[in-house]
Design brief:
With about 140 residues, this protein is α/β, with parallel strands linked by helices. It has two helices and five strands; from the N terminus they run βαβαβββ. The longest helix is centred in the middle third of the chain and has 18 residues. It is globular.
Length: about 140
């Protein structure tokens, strides 16, 4: 039986990687206390380490990471933290978050694509946990 044109079969889009693991999207965010390079890098490193630990990842499982920062954070690229952690073969990108009125300042967000055989564990640290009260 063939699938109708324009529709994917169930499970399509979940590419299999090493060991039959699926590609997963892992989300996270952390607050940064001040707009300095050391503060941005330290907070981002803490967030990435926590995501890796809670999702039982190895560096080789990580495909890409997209970072966004609130408009008030411009002293460093959060991707620098990933490079310092050894993510040398990971595609990284940084962007500015849209300035929604009333949104929290001082936040770094990340979307990581990684191979995993577990359901994603999203990580929100510090004030950023207020962004996802459903995960508390």
């Amino acid at each position: 039986m063939t699938e109708p044109v324009g529709q994917e079969a169930p499970g399509a889009g979940m590419e299999k990687g090493p060991g039959g693991k699926k590609v997963r999207g892992l989300r996270g965010a952390v607050d940064v206390e001040e707009n300095t390079a050391p503060a941005i890098i330290a907070a981002t490193e803490q967030l990435l380490r926590e995501i890796v630990i809670r999702n039982d990842l190895e560096t080789g499982d990580i495909i890409s990471a997209i970072f966004t920062v609130t408009p008030d954070l411009d002293a460093a690229f959060p991707a620098e933290a990933a490079r310092r952690l050894g993510w040398l073969d990971v595609a990284l990108m940084c962007a500015r978050e849209i300035p929604v009125p009333g949104s929290q300042p001082g936040i770094v967000r990340v979307l990581i694509h990684a191979y995993s055989d577990h359901q994603p564990v999203h990580v929100y640290l510090g004030r950023a946990s207020q962004l996802r009260p459903d995960l508390q």
